[in-house]
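Entry:
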Amino acid sequence: MKLYNISLAVLLGIGTLTSCESKLDVTNPNQQTAATFGFSAEDLEENVIAAYNHIRMEGTYARVGYMLDVCRGDEVWNSSQVWYMPFDDLNAPFTDEIGQWSWRDWYYTINVTNFTLSRLKEDNSILTEQQKRIKGQMLFLRGLAYYNLAGYYQNPILITDYATYSTLDGLYGTNNTYDEVWDQVEQDFSEAMTLLPSRNEGGEWAKGRATCGAAAGYYARALMMRHKYSDALTVLKNIINGQYGTYKLMANYGDNFREGAAYENNDESLFEIQYLDYGSQGTDDEWTPVNTSANATQGSAIESNFGPGDFGGWADLSASNWLYDLFKKERTTSGSLDPRLYWTIGTYENEWEGFEFGNVCYGTPMTADAPVTTNNNYGGLPVAKNTNFRTGIYDKVVTGLHCGINLRMMRYSDVLLRAAECENEVNGPTQQAIDWINQVRERAGLADLKLADFNSADKLFEQIANVERPKEFGCEFGRGFDLIRWGFFYDAGRLQQLKEHGTFRRTTDKSRVKESVSYSEVGVDEQLKSSYDSWIPGHEFFPIYQGTLNDNPNLEGNSANSSTSNADKLYGPVHPVVGL
């Protein structure tokens, strides 16, 4: 009897264990995991949406991730003298958490792309057309993430295999070199070019998505970061010749900075960040990727940073006086102001009466005696680009993540000016380079440049770098990347030039905000300051946040953490300053 009882207890125990084991194997279809999700194209399409969503977050392009590079450029200064201040001054400490937000949010993007790519075959020839499009988009977005991480943080951790996350050694990775990261960026963009359709082939599908044209454009950009001008020129010529789809300049420059289906994803746009138009969004701002509100806004806060304080904006950033003077130096062939000034800087000009929406700021008429300044305490020329300053859609800045203007991250005008730059580097100066520049100038109504006026590649480079590009792309993301690849921080003449460009006046006297300013008066006139006076070698990049270094004992800081010069890491000679 005793033996029987023991045997019965053992059998019941085994039965109980078997029963528990069976229950543990049951999969809840409403709670998917990494082990059960992603084995169908439909699942992976959801990941595509998630990855695109991550590039419109706080640290990617919805606010800080976009603005840090705008601050780094010489076309903008910090008019609030508070928010973004250390990034504008190029001396950000490694304890400033704002600088970590881009690191955080781009790695969210990378995580989604790596998971998706782990579900797709490496042999592209056996993929279906749908799978090719999915893989191409994931490669493009991963390349975009590392493009930003390398351009901001210099030597981030390179993670390309989702299995890496399965071990502590993988999670606590070490820095990769600058060249290793750019090698991966080039690889991702070049492979994406072979998988994605052109905008022509993609039709409606291609609106708002990465195409082979977008991948080609960014591949050329990546090549230029390390002075691979000949290779980049080949790619850019192919874009111009229509190999990756048909692109052309919009007749009206302002159409690149308005919201609505009539303007967004237009013929000039290679790639842009998609935001819902004003009035069609939710009400809950989602600043980080961990927010999951069903009623989330799907706009950007770029306008909030640029918007004048008197109209509800945060009044953080203003256009430089150098950029304003640059626009004023050259008239169109009809004697008018460059129309790009209207869409870039929100100043009152007599000639704007009757032009587009006229002299208005959020629908309110401006007069010569009552111009609008950015900040109530420090003045500043308002940035109008990528805002509704001129459009009249609403009468004040709607702050937070509400602006519905898509950010055109790469336009065909960039292809033309980059092709001109590469042609000049390889063969210049040449008539072909001049012709590409003139296409952009003609859209603005400016007279054609003549080859005879440029007797050296140095002089034509000066025209491209400090006239054509600032007027076409002023106050947009990308100028900081340009200053790094051109080596401007490590040439005495170029650094002095940056100090002159970055000089501004802090004043509440609205009659003085448009005055030309001189770096020679900094220290004499107490209202004057230059952003680049405070640049510390190595701080052309942003430091890796100390909290991130504390969390990962294998991670080291970059040149900004140690304030170490990068003068010996340039990829070629720096063009000397040339008078035009």
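The chain has a mean pLDDT of 94.
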